Amino acid sequence: MSADASVISRLDVYDSPAWQRARTTSGRPSRRTSRVADPHGWWRRLCWVTPQLALCGDLPDGDPDKREALYEWIAAGVTHIVDTRLERNDEWFVRTNAPKVGYTWVGVDDHGGRQPDWWFDEGVAGVVGGLRDGGKVVVHCHMGVNRGPSMAFAALLALGHDPMRALTAIRAARPIAGVLYAEDAVAWFHRTNRSPRKAMYTDTRAVRSWHQANPIDTRWITSRIWHAAR
Question: What is the model's pTM?
Answer without folding.
Answer: 0.89
